[in-house]
């Protein structure tokens, strides 16, 4: 009888402990979501609010005076529209090239018959911890004739070591029987890679594609370093950086004179704050819209590709 009562009391205490844990976990996650989303929601509210009214402050979650004039102004600028096109182009081309080349090298490094696989692996990993530095990298790009060209966005980052390791780990987890059967049927390495390996490693390729796309889309320092004098190759992130820099280094009135149209011309008035918020939303939305379509592959690729099967 006493044992039954003790077991019942123990189950009751466990049940209460589980409920307390769930409540604390829900509260923590709610606070985390609020802290994470609030800056973006607040920026969106400022971007959708009238610029002159936003100067007064007090905008938190919703605009006080709704308007799309800030977005109309941003997309009416030819430089920003062209920069958007360059950003999309470098993201698409850079992601495809990076994923394909990294997958090919990862497949080679995963083959047991490749006698130099350990040496090549160590050489790649060494570059993760030690690099030549900024100046040698710049001199190398200059000597290769890529200064002022679009390909400076693509070729230097063609293969990422971290991506390489993830893909290689995923490939090493594939059944060896599949490769042996294909080799018996007369398939060469390239045929096995294209027809067998690539379809089987789609989850990890989607993960690498997301990493690469985010990196290409958010990159602006390479534009500043190699193409700052070529406005035709400016990217959206670089244009945002220039706007933020102008906003921080100039007075509000001076920056407003630069970014705002004259009230006498009948054009909508904008301010540095409204332009900064609008540009932040513009450069963030594409990646936010792409992620939901890759989420299931991203989770699977990270859990399976990160641990050898």
Automatic annotation (TrEMBL):
Keywords: Cell membrane, Membrane, Transmembrane, Transmembrane helix, Transport. It is a multi-pass membrane protein. Residues 84-291 form the ABC transmembrane type-1 domain. Coiled coil: none annotated. It is found in: Cell membrane. InterPro entries: MetI-like, MetI-like_sf. Its main location: membrane. The chain crosses the membrane at residues 20-41, 79-107, 119-138, 150-171, 192-214, 275-294. It comes from the Bacteria. It holds the Pfam family BPD_transp_1. Belongs to the binding-protein-dependent transport system permease family. This is Aldouronate transport system permease protein. It comes from Paenibacillus qinlingensis.
